[in-house]
Amino acid sequence: MIFSKVKGVLADEVLDLPTQCPSSRTPPPPSPVTVQPPASSPLDFEVRLGIAGKVVKRYSFLIGDPLMVGLSFGEKNFIKGGIAHDLRTDGRKRLTYRPIFVETGVIPQASGSARVKMGATDVIASVKAELGKPNPSHPDKGKVSIYVDCSPTAEPTFEGRGGEELSTELSSALQRCLLGGKSGAGAGIDLSSLSIVEGKVCWDLYIDGLVVSSDGNVLDALGAAIKAALSNTAIPKVQVAANASSDEQPEVDVSDEEFLQFDTSGVGRHYIVDATTEEESQMSSAISVSINRQGRICGLTKRGGAGLDPSVILDMISVGKHVSEQLINKLDSEIAAAEACDEDNEMDS
Amino acid sequence: MRDLQLSLNKGQSVRLERALEQLESLSSKANSDASVTVADDISVNYEDAILKGHGTVEMDGRLVATLCGVVERVNKLVYVRALRARYKPEIGDIIVGRVIEVAPKRWRLEINFSQDAVLMLSSMNLPDGIQRRRTAIDELNMRSIFEESDVICAEVRGFQHDGCLHLQARSQKYGKLKKGQLLTIPPYLVKKRKQHFHYLDEYGIDVILGCNGFVWVGEHVETRDDMAEDLSNKSEPSSVKSLNTMSDDEAEETYTPPETRQNICRTANAIRVLSTLGFMITVEVVVEIVKLSISLNLDVHEMLGAEFYVLVAEKEAERRSLLTKRR
Amino acid sequence: MEYVNPEGLRLDGRRPMEMRQLRGEIGVVSKADGSAVFEMGNTKVIAAVYGPREVQNRSQQLNDQALVRCEYSMANFSTGDRMRKPKGDRRSTEISLVIRQTMEASILTHLMPRSQIDIFVQVLQADGGTRSACINAATLALADAGIPMRDLVTSCSAGYLNGTPLLDLNYVEDSAGGADVTVGILPKLDKVTLLQMDAKLQMDTFENVMQLAIEGCKAVASYIREILLDNTKQLEFRRGV
Predict the structure, then answer these.
(1) Are A69 and B184 inside 8 Å of each other by CB?
(2) Which residues does the annotated region (Disordered) include (chain A) (predicted)?
(3) What is the CA A65 to chain-centroid distance, rounded?
(4) What end-to-end distance do the CA atoms of chain C give, in Å?
(5) What are the chain A neighbours of C77 within 8 Å (beta carbons)?
(6) Which range marks the domain in which residue A86 is found?
(7) Distance (Å, whole) CA A226 – CA A233
(8) Strand, helix or coil at A121?
C-alpha cells in the first residue's frame, strides 16, 4: 500500500490556529512543555551509603527503551494491585520464580561456563583459571575476581559507556556475596583450595558475566549462571614436584550460594521475587540476599532509595531463606540436567 | 527456526514437533513456493505489465525481493508481504500507542513504527464534544487529556504534508486506556479486521488488538467517554496525587477486583503463548486458549510452562484441521 | 611452523579449501526487532538489530534516509587469554565502522527516512574471522528485523601460508604472520563491498586468495539463504490464515 500524501492545508490545520479572542492574546501562554517537568524521568540517580560505608551510586533499572519510557498511571496501579492481590501481571504469585533454563559448557575456551535464561532475561557466565601469584598478605589463598558486562544487544542504551554503571553495580553486588570480606573470610568460594604453592603460585579465577538480554532480575540470573559455571569448572591439578599436570581434575570447591532479590512495591507492605522489567520500574527498594545451602546469609545488598521498616527486612530475609531452599533444589536439578545434556553432546560429536 | 527456549522433556518435544508438522502440512500448498528471501528472484511474466509493490526492486530487468516474506499477487500488482517487521501503517488502522512527548498542539506517540506518530490536538474530539477552534486554554490543558507514558488507542489518519504519520481519535471509543496491561507482539500476527475492540463479557474485560502489535488487555470500561470525564473533572492530576497518598486500604479499593484481574492475566498469558509459538492472534483463538486453561484447572502462571505450550500447539493443529475439513 | 602438513591437512584437520562448520540461528534476543547467532567453527557472534525507530539524537536525523549505527563489542571471555579491554578501543571502533559501512551499502535506507537502525554485535568467542562472522550475523539479524535490503551481505576470509591459499583462517593461522584477506560480497549483484588485507602478497597470488575468499562468501550466502528461507516458511505456516 502506498500512502497518498495529502497536500495543501487541511481543515483541521485551520482549526488549529491560535484563537483570536482577546483574552488569550496577551500574554501568550507558554507552551505546556516548558512549564511542567516530565511526570516521571526514566533515569533516577541517587547517592546513598553502601554497606561498607562507601558512597555507592545507584540507579534504577528502568532505562529509556522507547517502550519503557515509563508506565502509565493505570498500568502502575495495575501492577501494584497485582502485588497486593498476589497475582502479578504474568499470573505469578509474589514468591513464584519464572521458569529457569540452564545450559552449561557454552564457552569451550573457558574452564567452565553456563548460560541462564529466566523469561526474556538471558545471561552468560564464564570461569577462567590462570596461574598467578598470591597476594603477599594472604600467601595461602588464591584470587577470584568478578566482572559483569552489559551488552548493548540487551538494551540499546548500554551502547558505549551506557551500561557501565549497571555493570559496576552488578559486579559489586556479586563480589560482596561471593568473595566475602577483605580477608577472604566467609567467601562463597574457598580461596585456600586455589592455592598451589604457598606464597608462590596460585590459581587466579576470573569470573565474567555477560548480560545478553534483560527483562528484570539480572542479578539472580547472574548468580545462578555463576553457580552453574562453577559447578561446570574443572581445574587441572598441578603437581609441582612432578612438574607435570596430572589427569585428575578436581572441581573447584564452592559452597552453594543463592541470590534472591526482593522488590518491595510502592505499596510497601508486600514484596515479590524475580521481578520483570516493568515491575522493577515500579519498585521503591530491593534487597538482594545471598543464602547458602545451610541457610546462612552470605551477603546482602539493599538497593533503591525508599526506606524500609527493619522488621520488613527481617521478614524478607526469613522468607528468602524459605524460597531459596526451593530455588537451590530447582537449580541443582537444572544444572544436573544441563550437564547430562552437555555430556551427551560431547559424546555425539 | 527461533528457539522457544523452553525446557521440554523428550515426550513434550516429540508432541510439539508432531503438532508443528501437522500445521505445516495443513498450510496451503499453493503458498509454499511463494516464500522468498532477500535477493531472491520473483518469477513474473514480463510480457504482462506489472506493478512493483512493496519489498521488490527491479534489477537488470528482473524482479527481486528486498525482504523475506511471501509473494502476493493482486491483479497486476506484485509485492512481498513481510512477516516479522515493524509496523507498516495503513490508513484507518486501529492502533494502541504510548505517549512519549507532549509538544505544542500535539502528542508524540511510540507505535512500533520507524518514526513516532503524531496526534494533533485538533485531530481529536474535545472533551466537551463541541466542534470549535482549539483555544490556547485547550492547549494548556493537554496534559489533563493525555500525559507522558499514557497508553492510548487511536486510528491512523495517514501521512501529512510534513512527512509525519498522523493519528486521529475522533470517536468516543478512542482514548486513554487504564487498568490493565500492554503486551507487545509482532504485528504480522494481528489480522486486520473490521473489529479490533473486543469486549469479552463473560470475563468482564476489554481486549484491543492494535494493528501495530500493541495489545491492550484491561478491565472493561462501559463507555469510552474518558475525555469528557477528564475535562469536566479537571482535578484529575490532583486525584492522582491523592491516590498516591491514600492509605493502603483505600488504594486497594481502586484496584481491579481479583476475579477480573485473574481473567486479564489469563488472557494476557494466552496471547503471550500464542505469540511465542507464532500463531495468528484473533479474539476467537485467544478465548479458546483461555477456556482450555480453565478447563485444565491451571493456575495462571502455569500457562507459561512448557506443557501448556505443547497443548496450545496441539489445540491449534486440531482447530486448523477442523477448519480445512469443513471447507 | 608447518600449517599444512604433507598430506595437505591443516592444523585443525581441514583441507586448504575447506570452511569451518557454519551454524546460524535466528531470534535469540526476544526484545530486539531482529537478532541472530552466527558461528564459524569456534567463532561465535550474536547480532541484535533495533529499529527502524525514531532517531534518538535529533541532531543526527537524516531527512532522506535512515541513520545506520553499529557497535562491536567483545566479551571478556571471548579470547583464549582473558583480557579486560576498555570499551571502544581502536580495534572495536574500526570494526564497528567496517560493519556499519558494509551493511549500510546494502540496506535500502531511503525507504526509511528520519529513522535510525542500530546494529549491535557481541563476540562471544573469538577464534579468527570475527569480522566475517559479525557481518554474517548482522545480515541475518537485519533480515529477521524485516529491513529491506538490496542484497544479502556475506563475508569470509582467506590467507596464504606455506605456499598454499587457505580458506577461513582460525586464530592460530591468522596470527601466523601470513596474509589475511577478508572479503565481503553482495552475492546476487556479484560485487565486492569489503576488502581488507594485512601483510604482503604477490599480485597473482593475491588474485587466487581473493578468489578463494569470494568462493567462501558464496558458500556462506547459500547457507544464510537456506536458513532465511526455512525461517520464512516456518513463520508463514505457523501463522496460518
Answers:
(1) no
(2) 19-39
(3) 18
(4) 61
(5) 107, 109-110, 113, 126, 128, 206, 208, 210
(6) 45-348
(7) 10
(8) strand
**Strand pairing category for B51-52 and B77-82:** parallel
For residue A75, give how far its alpha carbon lies from the nearest alpha carbon of chain B (Å).
Answer: 6
Residues of chain C neighbouring A207 (CB-CB closer than 8 A): none
Of B3, B37, B116, Cβ closest to residue C225: B37
| ipTM of model | 0.93
Q: Which residue of B has its CA nearest to A270?
A: B248
**DSSP summary character for residue A251:** B
Contacts of A28 in chain B (CB under 8 A): 136
Q: Are the beta carbons of B262 and A87 separated by less than 8 Å?
A: yes
CB contact under 8 A, C76 and A147: yes
Cell 527456526 sits on residue: B1
Which CATH code is given to the segment(s) B37-83? 2.40.50.100
| C-alpha span between A283 and A272 (Å, rounded) | 10
Q: Where are the domains of chain C?
A: 22-239
Domain spans of chain B, in order of start? 37-83
Q: Which of C29, C78, C88 is facing A160, going by the closest CB pair?
A: C88
Alpha carbon distances (Å) from C78 to A106, C27, C73: 11, 21, 10
- Residues A315 and A321: their CA atoms lie apart, in Å, by 10
Q: Which of A274, A228, A246 is nearest to A110 (CA)?
A: A228
Write down how long chain B is: 327
Task: Tell me the one-letter amino acid at B102.
Answer: V
Q: Does domain C22-239 have CATH number 3.30.230.70?
A: yes
pLDDT tens sequence for chain C (241 residues): 789 999 999 999 999 999 999 999 999 998 999 999 999 999 999 999 998 999 999 899 999 999 999 999 999 899 877 666 666 689 999 999 999 999 999 999 999 999 999 999 999 999 999 999 999 999 999 999 999 999 999 999 999 999 999 999 999 999 998 899 999 999 999 999 999 998 889 999 999 999 999 999 999 999 999 999 999 999 999 998 7
Interchain pair C76, A122: CB under 8 A: no
Task: Identify the chains in contact with C, defined as 3+ C-beta pairs within 8 A.
Answer: A, B
Question: In total, how many domains does chain A have?
Answer: 1
**A208/A111 Cα distance (integer angstroms):** 12
